[in-house]
Design brief:
By secondary structure, the chain is α/β, with parallel strands linked by helices. Helix content is 39%, strand content 9%. The chain has a six-stranded parallel sheet with strand order 2-1-3-4-5-6, with helices on both faces. α3 (55-69) packs across α15, α6 runs parallel beside α15 and α7 crosses α8 (180-191). It is globular and about 55 Å long. The chain starts with a helix and ends with a helix. Residues 1-32 and 41-47 have low confidence and may be disordered.
Length: 370
């Protein structure tokens, strides 16, 4: 283990550590075929009938943003390549999409996932996303959490970070949880209700809401390897982060912790076609495919759904491409290993902000009518 770790210290690719973490193992044929012919809300239990399929309107907004920004935004893709149709997608509203300055000064608060601070220095900040959202009148904040720590620990950090942000008279935060960051965010919302009033909405981006079967095979030793990546600024505090990601842990937690009813929740789910999985993630994709091939290399699609939330998109991107701009920062590594990293992330963030703006305006009209 020590010799392997020493080699990792000189190897400029954190995703090798990520692949080690999930104990890729031997590839094998999926137990069931990949298919998009499913009920879009199959995860939602019957008791959560308030869940709505809002993909039609979100597609209208996302497509309009992509078309308007295609010449000045990185990682452009045509709308039908960025989104994937699963089952019967409802039609859009046909209403025009506002593409001008922000109508509400919303702040996008991004909660990162497992091991984020181990490779954040290598990855760099999301400069293009910051600049783009600020040019429209929005702001973006990436919360600093301890990427290898428990959700309970990170929930306290999230509470403190939210309380330190400038506050407006109205709810002004769209909290976006990515991967394990979604688990940490949900924990913070239930443990510290004082931050709930700040939330205009909460969304899951490839969030590990229901956990991942891969977490059963991983160990604290694999997590420890992440600390050896050059420039890493992360501390290892045991295996609780992995326990927090195990499906049994997540299902039990969801059963015991009802989510705050006054906050609207939304789910953006990664559901990549198999050819959209990057080379370095193929082995973990194949391993998870023994459970279900409809996975993003780390999470099965239905484990990303927040119970009771509105479904707004199935994204044709793997677990890294949907959030991490590797191809913008490290083109050689991207071309060799993370070769399916192209995805219009900045456009996705804008579309999400505009969608939430519309939702807030609609809710305000409905409250006035009552």
């Amino acid at each position: 283990m020590y010799l392997f770790a020493r080699r990792l210290k000189a190897f400029p690719l954190p995703w090798l550590l990520f692949a080690t973490l999930i104990l890729a193992g031997c590839s094998s044929k999926p137990l069931q075929p990949f298919t998009t012919d499913i009920a879009p809300l199959m995860l939602a239990p019957a008791m959560q009938s308030e869940s709505q399929d809002r993909r039609g309107r979100f597609r209208e907004i996302f497509c309009a943003v992509l078309e308007a920004r295609k010449t000045n935004m990185p990682d452009h893709l045509p709308c039908d390549q960025a989104l994937i149709r699963i089952g019967a997608e409802p039609p859009g509203s046909g209403e025009p999409v506002h593409l001008g300055p922000a109508r509400r000064p919303l702040r996008l608060v991004f909660v990162p996932g497992l091991g984020w601070d181990c490779f954040a220095n290598w990855l760099g900040q999301f400069e293009s996303a910051y600049r783009h959202l600020e040019s429209l009148g929005y702001t973006m904040t990436i919360l600093e959490i301890d990427g290898l720590s428990s959700s309970q620990h990170n929930a306290r950090l999230i509470r403190d970070a939210i309380r330190s942000l400038p506050q407006s008279e109205d709810a002004d935060i769209l909290a976006l949880g990515y991967s394990k960051g979604m688990v940490d965010l949900l924990t913070a919302l239930t443990e510290y209700p004082e931050i709930q009033t700040r939330m205009a909405a909460v969304a899951s981006l490839a969030g590990a809401v229901g956990g991942s079967p891969l977490a059963y095979d991983a160990s604290a030793d694999e997590l420890e390897l992440m600390r050896y990546f050059p420039g890493a600024e992360c501390e290892h505090t045991g295996d609780q982060a992995l326990i927090d990601l195990q499906p049994d842990t997540r299902k039990n937690w969801l059963a015991e912790h009802p989510l705050p009813a006054q906050i609207p929740f939304y789910s953006l789910i990664t559901f990549p076609q198999p050819e959209r999985i990057s080379r370095i993630l193929k082995t973990s994709y194949n391993k998870l495919s023994r459970v279900d091939p409809r996975n993003d290399s780390q999470l099965i699609f239905y484990d990303q759904f927040i119970p009771g939330s509105d479904l707004i998109a199935y994204l044709n991107a793997d677990h890294l491409a949907v959030a991490l701009p590797i191809d913008e920062k490290h083109q050689l590594i991207s071309s060799l290993f993370v070769d399916e990293n192209t995805f219009p992330r900045d456009a996705l963030y804008e579309a999400l902000m505009r969608f939430i703006e519309e939702e807030m305006a609609l809710a305000s009209v409905q409250q006035t009518a009552q």
